[in-house]
Amino acid sequence: MNGKKLLGPMWAAALALAVVVLPGPANPAQAADDGSRPTQPVKLVFLHHSVGENWLSDDQGGLGRALAANNYFVSDTNYGWGPNSIGDRTDIPDWLEWFRGGNSGLYLGAVFAENGRNSQYARPLANPGGPNQVVMFKSCYPNASLAGGPNDPPAAGGGLTVANAKYVYNELLRYFATRPDKLFVVVTAPPNSDTPLAANARAFNNWLRTSWRAENHYPYRNVAVYDFYNVLSGPDNHHRLVAGAEQHIYTPGMNSAYYRSSEGDDHPNVAGSVKARNEFVPMLNAFYHRWRTTPPSGAVTTVRLPAVAAHDGWVAESAPGSGVGRTVNAVGPTLAVGDDGGNRQFRSFLSFDTSRLPARAWIVSATVKVKRSGGTGRSPFNSHRNLVVDIRNPHFGSAAGLAAHDFQSAANRGSVAVLNPTPAVGWQTAPLSSQGLSLLNVRGTTQFRLRFQVPTDRDRVADTVAFRSGNAPQSAERPVLEVQYRLG
Fold first, then answer.
1. For the structural domain made of 20-293, what CATH number should be given?
2. What is the pLDDT of residue 23?
3. Which pLDDT belongs to residue 263?
4. What pLDDT is recorded for position 295?
5. DSSP for 26-94?
6. How far is the C-alpha of 126 from the C-alpha of 166, rounded, in Å?
7. Are strands 387-392 and 445-452 parallel, antiparallel or unpaired?
8. What are the C-alpha distances in Å from 392 to residues 53, 219, 389?
9. Within the chain, which residues score under 50 in pLDDT?
10. Where in the chain is the domain with CATH 2.60.120?
11. DSSP code of 268?
């Protein structure tokens, strides 16, 4: 079912107003929720069909533009998208194919890598690079027609029933628990005009929001539920953030489509789409901050990851001020940072196999450590300002191996750490910022680029600092990435 053709009797019964305030979500926030936008760009992908397309569009819901204003770089899937056209299939039972089926690795690899627009909406932010961090997914309004009884327990059975829908979402948690590095946002299916089954839709979505995670004793903060259905079922029905508190209210009996399109079908109209946009975005921000700022309890584990010698080394600039690399040394025992007698800049690169970290790791801290081994001329720490560290996930340039173009290749984020300039001998450290921690790649390689903020002091004298590389003769002197984490 795709949500484009289904028609049904229009809801028209007037009901007496009553307000029900439901309990908060499983694992509620410890304090007031933060509805502010993330401080750094966040990559988000939205899996949807026509209702989602309208919600994103600039001339209907405006969600795409609103998300961009809140620092989300948005991509999406739609009809016909992806391997085996998996984008055609977004009914509730289909999510098993996406997340738990035999080809789920193929599908989800494409989801996490998706950078494109498959709907029309403004996308003013530059792509910050790396995989998608937030996955939103939504079924269309035919999925509000769930057969069975409102209190049916989970049971596999196929089709659109309350029991099978609960079974499907319980199965999805089994996958979500393996990826605490992603935030999964369930957007409930919008209401339709199928009034005989509307009470089932209400009961299921209430269960999904308040009981689903608790019944499964789900311990992580990487799953959130937004009740799109509720917002679109009446003018006084809301799911929103009010003064730092999540508010979910509805009028009993108002369980069907209220904001119907001018064509007379159950696609939400502009008013409904805009209402849902305005209520959703602050809630998404709150979901994001819950996920990123509430670490698990438990013992801290420290692991020291050695530099991958085959992929580290230094690159020298082709000409002073060109910003383009030329000379590469990937086999020497030292790394050079600074400038040479021709005022050409040296940049150095470190590579670590961060897939050795558990997928469920909640990173507490990470520090790049390098062993000082001398230098030439004046200390560039005095003349070239700070020695900063850029990060790239999974690698700079087109491959993990060191290449001249890595010198100028884009980083996921620049200056995620500053190398401590003292002592003049021994180990020097660069603790990663929170933005750097979020970019560590627990699925593969993470690389770092070391450079001075001032490329050259123009004195035509080689001013460099040297550190032991991954090719240093003594393994105890080679660079390490020291990571502390808790299991999430």
1. 3.40.50
2. 36
3. 82
4. 66
5. SS--SSS---SPPSS-EEEEEE--HHHHHHHSTTTT-HHHHHHHTTEEEEEE-TT-SGGGGGG--SGGG
6. 38
7. antiparallel
8. 32, 30, 10
9. 1-30
10. 301-487
11. B
Predicted TM-score (pTM) of this structure = 0.61
Q: CA-to-CA distance for 261 and 270, rounded, in angstroms?
A: 8
Question: Which residues of the chain does CATH 3.40.50 include?
Answer: 20-293
Contact between residue 40 and residue 132 where contact means Cβ atoms under 8 Å apart: no
DSSP secondary structure letter of residue 271: H
The per-residue pLDDT for range 63-77, each reduced to its tens digit, is 999 999 999 999 999
Contact 88, 94 (CB under 8 A): no
Which of left, alpha, beta for 48 (phi over 0: left; psi -120 to 50: alpha)?
beta
Q: CA geometry: angle at 453 spanning 68 and 463, to 5°?
A: 160
| CA-based end-to-end distance of the chain | 36
Looking at the domain 301-487, which fold is it?
Answer: Jelly Rolls (2.60.120)
Cβ atoms of residues 14 and 244 within 8 Å: no
Q: Which of 281, 322, 309, 298 is nearest to 405 (CA)?
A: 322
d(CA 431, CA 437): 10
